[in-house]
Structure formats: structure tokens, C-alpha cells
Amino acid sequence: MRKNIWNNAFLLLAIIILLASCGSRKEQQHRFTNLKYPKYEFRGAWIHTVAQPQYQRMNSVQMKQYFVKMLDDLHATGINAIIFQVRPQADAFYYSEIEPWSRYLTGIQGKAPDNGFDPLAFMIDECHKRNMELHAWLNPYRVGFENQDYVPNHIYRTHPELFVKYGKQIYFDPGFPENRLYICRVVDDIVRRYDVDAIHMDDYFYPYPIKGESFPDDRSFNAYAANQGFSPAQRNDWRRNNVNTLIKEIKYTITRNKPWVRFGISPFGIYRNKRSTPDGSGSETNGLQNYDDLYADIKLWVKNKWIDYNIPQIYWEIGHRLADYSTLINWWADNNFEQPLYIGQDVKRTMDATMPSGDNQLFEKMRLSRSFTTVDGNCFWPGYEILNNHKNVADVLKTEYHKYPALIPAYKHMHKGEPKTVSGIKQAYTPEHHYLQWLSNHNKQNPETAQYYVVYRFAEGQKEDLYDARNIVATTRDRYYILPYEGGRNKYKYVITAVDAFHNESKGKSIKVTL
């Protein structure tokens, strides 16, 4: 009997140590105990504009209506962050004095939308009305096709020596320092002039390899590699260094302007295959590799905090022969260096694939992503498939996986504090509404002050638990909340918390009301 008691004690101690090692953040630990309704979860959707013809068929009024409905529908499914592609091909879905209006916006490169419409500014405002984040998505190196029409002042026309043709497309040559300066200038312009929550880049760094065709960067390599300490045999290392340098410079560009704006990357889903790593540190996969083929050392960027979140595109099915989803989510979860990690989910492939039971793979993928304290959420590609409700994915997200609101987990590596608690909560009335209002130290230019609020509700006698998402009735950027009418018979306690720009949450302030 005594031996069993000691065995049980050691087992309990081991479990406690294991749980503690899985994640030090309090919100992660609470999320781990409630996999069905997590309070903390990034729930993103990519909205791409490249090769999307619908926008050029709309005028500004129609486009505003389209965006409003899009955001309403995505918000209804629980999405709390929109990754909106604003620079698909060295062009702009926003007003810019650096790059021309995108041909995917109006059909003609350089042609502005009517009535001075600015899609990025509009999307930011509409996202923030719904307390959703807006991440401005830029493709760094892609320009377009050689034979397409470019406006005379496009950088490809004014400085063609900085570009290369690879396959049928034109790319910035990452080896020229002038190109890094130019891309950082674009980032600087967006961050300074727009209230974006993050700058985002996807998996297109050096282009995907074309069989039998080498990337034509001899001119930049011959001009710069030797002075940078790279020999002719180290061209791959030199290419990686070019991208590493760009990533560092973009992070610095963002931080010097607005240190609360994040920088995120959604890399290709495989870092390196195990057979490519002498120490066996790669994944048990057999596919294209970030490190070796795209010269994107995403693991280094995460480790050195050059980026603020990582969304590997694990688009394959569970059981895929070359790139199994389960294998890859385990690998990324073990290689996140305690930094924010979200999982890129392919909506169509997930809903079309089946498990042995015959069900689609959404349940198992969501279960897996929520089973790691080192995974902080998901991002869905493309957001249009949610809008199309492909095989009822929007309905399932709304009624099951995103049934209750979730807060984006705090970016503790950027700021560990918490905003000041709200004050002065009181009830107020108009002829139409009964509502709560409160005071806070909100300052839009100070990211450590309250930027939005969480409203919790508890029935009379119910235990107050701010870690249970089922108790959240709203997140809002307003300093008021309209109360429902229930006949004047029900008593509740409402708790209000403040959240800063880094998603740190304050302590709660409460008020009792009768509805």
C-alpha cells in the first residue's frame, strides 16, 4: 500500500511538472483545460486579392457593401483577425505615393478607385468596429509577368536592373540591398499612415524552384557576396542571409514607428525534411523545404524574435504520404521557442478529406491544434471558402468550434504588463436603451493603455470565472454595452476588463444589474 502511495505521489508530481513545462503563460494553461471553448485563441482568415477578378467589377459603393457583408459573415463565425492582402504584386490596395494602385483592384494598374476610396483604410475601420484585427499582407518580392502593362513610374520600369525574370514572372532580386531598402520603405509607409495591427508576409521569399532552371542572381551575387564574406560555394547561405537581413530590417522598421504593431510570417509548412538535417532535427516528411528551397530560415526568425508570430501553412491532410498534418503540427509545436504559433488550415482540403469514420478532418485538426499549449490558434485559407460555407464549414465553426468569443493570446514577448482597470461603471438609460458605461485610460497612441474591453455576465449565484469563454457576452472598442431586456426579473453581475494593444487583460470591475 505504501509503495502505491509513493508511486501515485511521484506520478502526480510528474504530471504537474509536465503541465508547467508545456507553457508558462497563465492563459495558455487555462486554455489547455478547456479545449472545447478556449478563451484564448487566434482565429484568423486570409483574404487574398491577387488574381481575384471580383473587385475590378465593383465600384466603391459596391465594394464597401461587399466588405461589410464579408466582415459580418466572418465575425459571425468567430473570426477575430483578418489578414488582408494589400500588396499582391508590388502594387497597392491602398493610397500610396510609392507604388501604383493594383490592377486586381480596378482592372488597370495605376487606376484609382472612384470617389477617393481607400480599401485598406475602410477595412481597418470596419474590422475595428467589430473588434477584429487587420493584418496588412504584403508579398515582398513578387512583381508580375514580363509582358503585362506596368505604369511608367513603376519601380520595375525605372530600375529594371534590380529585377530578374524567373520562369514567366518578374521578381525583385533579394541580393540587391536597394531592394531591401525599397521594401522597408513600403512597410514604413503603411505602418506610419494606417492603423494596422500587424504586417504579414506569406511563403513567397525566393520563388518556388522551377525544375531545370536556376534562379538568375549572378549579378547580385558577384557584386556583393564576396564583400559580405560568402564564397562561390556558399551561394545558398548567401541567399538565406539576404532574406534574414530583410526580415530583421522590416522588424526594425515596424518597431521604430509603432512598437505595438506585430510582424508575422506564414511560411510553407515544412521547415526541413529529416533526411536533409545531419542532426535529424527535421520533420518526417518528404517535400519542398523552407530552408533549402525558399531560403527562408523561419526557425531562426522565431528563435531570434525577428517576427512576432508564425503561421506555418500545414495545408495537407492527416495521413498524407509525404507531409502528414499530424507529424507537422507536432514538429512546429516542438520548435516554437515559446513564441506565438498559429496553424494555417486549408479549408477545402480539410473539409474534403475524410477520417476512417467517414467524417471530414476538421474535428481532428481542431482537436490537435488545441491540444498543444504551444499552439495559440488557427488561420483559415482562404477566407472565401468560409464565406462560401464550403461543406458547411461556416456553420460548424459558428455552432461548435467558435461558439463563444475568444481573445487573441497576449504577446508577452512584446509587453508583459496589463492595462489599468476600468472605473466608474454605471447604468444609464435612453428612451431606447438600458446600457452600461465606464471610464478607462484609453489612449490610441499609448499601446499599454486600454484599447478594447471584454464584457462578462454571471447569473445571480453563479461562480465568477473569467477564464471560461462561455461567460463572455461581448468584446468591444466602445466604452459602453447595451443591455438586453428580460422583463425586469433577472439579476446578474457584469464584469468589465480592459485589454491593451498587446492583448494583455486587466483585472475586472463589476456591477450588479436587474434585467
What class, by secondary structure content?
Answer: alpha/beta
Radius of gyration of CA atoms, rounded to a whole number:
24 Å
Low-confidence stretches: 1-33
How many domain modules?
A: 2
Largest sheet: 8 strands, parallel
Please state the second-level CATH architecture of the largest domain.
Alpha-Beta Barrel
The portion of residues assigned to helices is: 25-40%
Mean pLDDT equals 93
For this structure, the CATH topology of the largest domain is TIM Barrel
Report the principal-axis shape: globular
Distance between the termini: 56 Å
Number of strands: 18
Keywords:
31% helix, 8-stranded parallel sheet, globular, 4-stranded antiparallel sheet, alpha/beta, 18 strands, 515 residues, TIM Barrel, 18% strand
Short précis:
With 515 residues, the chain is α/β, with parallel strands linked by helices.
Plain-language structure description:
Strand 1, helix 3 and strand 2 form a beta-alpha-beta unit. The protein has 2 domains: 378 residues, Glycosidases (TIM Barrel, Alpha-Beta Barrel); 92 residues, Immunoglobulins (Immunoglobulin-like), CATH 2.60.40. Helix 3 packs parallel to helix 5 and helix 7 runs parallel beside helix 9. The protein is 31% helix and 18% strand. By secondary structure, it is an alpha/beta fold. The N terminus is likely disordered. The strands form 4 sheets. Strands 9-8-7-3-2-1-11-10 form an 8-stranded parallel β-sheet. Strands 15-14-17-18 form a 4-stranded antiparallel β-sheet, with no helix packed on it. The protein has a 3-stranded antiparallel β-sheet with strand order 4-6-5, with no helix packed on it. The longest helix has 23 residues.
